[in-house]
Design brief:
eight-stranded mixed beta sheet; alpha/beta; 405 residues; single chain; six-stranded mixed beta sheet
Amino acid sequence: MTKTLRLSTPETEESDRFARFKLIRWWDQERLGRARIVVVGAGALGNEILKNLALLGAGRLFLVDLDRIEPSNLSRSVLFREGDSGRSKAEVAARSVRDIYPGMRIQWLEGNVQTDVGLGVFLWADVVLAGLDNRESRLFLNRACRRAGRPWVDGAIEQLNGLARVFLPDDGPCYECTLGQADWDILRARRSCNFLTREDSLLGRVPTTPTSAAVIAGLQCQEAVKLLHGLEPLSGKAFVFNGLTHESYVLNYERKPNCFGHETPGSWTGLGRKASETTLDELLAVVRKDLGPDAVVAFDRDVVHGLECVPCGSFEPVFRQLRSVTEREAACPSCGLVRNPKLVHGLDGTEDFLDMTVTEFGMPPFDLVAGRKRAEERLYLFDEDARAVLGPAWEEGDLNRRNAT
């Protein structure tokens, strides 16, 4: 079949905001309009990413950020205004991009991507874009996207410099492959000897400018456009930009043979349930019906069952994810010593809290859990949470087209 080339005219350009894009022969505006995109972070990079996606006519977005707007954000964030101080970054950014492109359907979440976002969000996505400022969140995102089998585009800026890179869920290098010993030392410093979060490390600030954010976010969005159109992305490589000299180069990464981040994506089964309406006992029963009476439930996230103070002989139930429990919170109210977190990694049926719902236990909605019996594993999705979690970005049939069994 011969494809007819449609030339734009002043009349068509006046009525079509995307007419100039369509002059690119391979451009598919409808594909961008249908695209499912997750954006993690609404800071300097995130603002530029969101602005670009709105201008490009991206159709459906899920945005997550845990911070609130401060005056220092106003010099680097095009979507924020003076009167927004103290408000959620995610909420304000979502409102502003809808002003740029009213056709965008965006759902925002004020929360931590590591603890508050179920892996179903990544299963839903076509591509994930990250505007993060710490290694720990990148490490989580890398493993989440590998688990879901989705590509993600990372960006990083400091002063006038920056880099953009793409990681695919294939046999090539992942983010974890790029980490050196100094990176792992920084990650370990973020944790206490009990693996609790050290709050002081949150106080660091990275010096950035809106100009470097614009350069790197532009490259990230361009890579996302290439991914969505089936063009060859910058996979397993980094575009490194030196803003002082305007020199740039492409850095090639190599896969580390023993990298723990290379988890093979698996097929999943929809539970037809909500996490808030499913008890742990019911979840275990589903897994054992499929895999046998000795199967167990395994979680991708560590949950703190409780905090134990050995000298005082006390135990406080907590049921929160380990990443959300700080060293300060773990201090014993009686003696002041840091208590030991008792962690839960899965369920084998002997637990005394199986009557709790999955939400009460500390898991986010729309999450994936695993059922395991020796070497066999099956993944289960709380798919009934999809509509509430994704809001206006959700369409019936979204998950039917994904990697389901």
